[in-house]
Write a structure and sequence with these properties.
This protein has 398 residues and is an alpha/beta fold. The protein has 14 helices and 12 strands. The chain is globular, with a radius of gyration of 22 Å. The chain starts with 10 loop residues before the first helix and ends with a helix.
């Protein structure tokens, strides 16, 4: 097992070995759960040195973590090629908010994709606005033409690819290239793919963010976020998180690390089952279009094929003739799909989505109601049977 912050092992091996050096684990397999607010010093001299140090592995106070949190942060860093460090947060929204605060100040402008996760929009339109920071939105398929939107005040771009409702895949390398030329920081919500399917920093992103609540934890029992960056922004990201008092509990960090160990096999099963169901849906007469980046007719598919190493379990599909009533009848009839927010856990979920009301830079013109599915780890044949039965209820409600 390597003791370096980066290693050359394959992703499946990294998911098992990362963050498990002996400094964190001792003689056991998993890092123990260190529950501690107060860290004790042997002397006043040690106390003074603790104040001056600020790195994982250096005890100071519980808010800066312990081996349980440090090992998880190190694992996520090791799994992101080109990364220097990772900060952990109590939710994905906290990770997005704190990362943006690390690179923005009053008077700045930030560009956000028009397919942004709704809490990201809410944060930008309300909280950042109160700080004197202006949020502007762009077409997710704009590519390098985003440079036409740059002004002297543009300091950051928040990308999300694919969008978590409508699944447009952005040309991240092209956007990051023109942003870098203009001195603009790029942040990516990479929750859908994780570093396993999209190496964000290698593709030009400055700060890669995930709602670890989803695929990293994988079991729908922990809220957590993470932001990973390279050397240029690491000190700023870390300082901002600490000044805002961001910390995750050691118990949550332990559960996230345990989920991480099976990330490879879970993601591959999510991918395989989701593709099976997406192709089945394409052949249903009730379905107009399936919005899955791995399907050829999904916006940005060619970019996905070029840049991504796989696809996860989240996608949407259009009910071509349905309305709110018939869509509700469809979702209510499902028994293996829960109705709820979030995704990335072992269970399948279904959710009605209405992207048009969140758009400001682009118009959502697709007719018919949308349903977002997260395909869990159940047998896909059982899930298909559940969906088929729900379509009967849908047709009866038309």
């Amino acid at each position: 097992m390597t003791d370096s912050p980066q290693n050359s092992e394959k992703p499946a091996t990294q998911a098992v070995t990362s963050g498990r050096r002996k400094e964190w684990t001792g003689p056991v397999v998993n890092p123990p759960v260190w529950r501690a607010s107060t860290h004790l010093y042997d002397s006043i001299a040690d106390l003074r040195s603790g104040v001056s140090s600020n790195a994982d592995g250096q005890f100071f106070y519980g808010r800066r973590g312990s081996p349980t949190q440090w090992s998880l942060a190190e694992a996520l860093t090791e799994m992101e090629p080109g990364a220097t460090g990772t900060m952990l947060y109590p939710s994905g929204v906290a990770a997005i908010a704190c990362a943006m605060l690390a690179v923005l100040k009053p008077g700045d402008e930030v560009l956000l994709t028009d397919s942004s996760y709704d809490p990201s929009r809410s944060y930008a339109d309300a909280f950042l606005k109160r700080m004197g920071i202006t949020a502007l939105y762009y077409d997710p398929l704009i590519g390098e033409d985003i440079s036409a939107l740059f002004t002297d005040k543009t300091k950051a771009i928040l990308l999300e690819s694919p969008g978590s409702l409508t699944f447009e895949v952005q040309d991240i390398p092209a956007i990051c290239a023109v942003a870098k030329e203009a001195g603009i920081v790029t942040l990516l919500d990479n929750t859908w793919a994780t570093s396993r399917f999209f190496a964000a920093l290698e593709n030009g992103v400055d700060i890669s963010i995930v709602a670890a609540t989803k695929y990293i934890v994988g079991h729908s029992d922990v809220m957590m976020g993470a932001a990973t960056t390279h050397e240029k922004y690491w000190a700023r990201l870390r300082r901002t998180a600490q000044q805002l008092g961001q910390v995750v509990s050691p118990d949550d960090a332990y559960l996230a690390a345990r989920g991480l160990r099976t990330l490879e096999v879970r993601l591959r099963q999510h991918e395989q089952s989701a593709l099976t169901i997406a192709h089945w849906l394409k052949d249903r007469p009730e379905v107009g279009q399936v919005l899955h980046p791995a399907l050829t007719d999904c916006p940005g598919h060619e970019i996905w094929k070029r840049d991504f190493k796989g696809s996860s379990g989240l996608f949407s599909f259009q009910l071509s003739e349905g309305d709110e009533k018939s869509r509700a009848a469809f979702i209510d009839a499902l028994t293996l799909f829960g109705i709820g927010y979030s995704w990335g856990g072992f269970e399948s979920l279904a959710l009605p989505v209405d992207p048009g009301k969140y758009r400001t830079a682009t118009d959502w013109t697709m007719a018919g109601a949308l349903v977002r599915l997260h395909i869990g780890l159940e047998d896909p044949e059982d899930l298909i049977a559940d969906l088929a039965k729900a379509f009967e209820h849908y047709n009866n409600a038309l």
